[in-house]
Fold:
Amino acid sequence: MDRRVDSRLDVRLPCYVGLPNNHARRLAGVTVNVSRSGMLVSWRRNGPAGELPAPGDVMTAEIELPASRSFGRRCMHCQVTVVRILEDDADAARVAFRVNRMQFRNYATGRFARGGLEDVLNRSRLVM
Structure:
């Protein structure tokens, strides 16, 4: 049974996820789909299983948005809660998040701003 309230848009955008009070450690991934109320993010784990968040964890996510002539580079800054974790194999996982709060920010002021999709793909060696 699908309980989604908002329709999802299948889109691959660079995404950075970290604990709200610990910005030193972040996970780089790529969105699989996004809606107003939730998102699915995929990333490649580089280490022990402990790197994955747990359901109920409150985190901060920033999604890089494509640049536009009107707004320049922007990011979507979200407070999210982990809903479920889908482990694709020993190294890859997808995490479903519920969006609690969302704010659009200039990319330069985003907490995790670090580069484009190719950088994320190279750093995290994602499997799609």
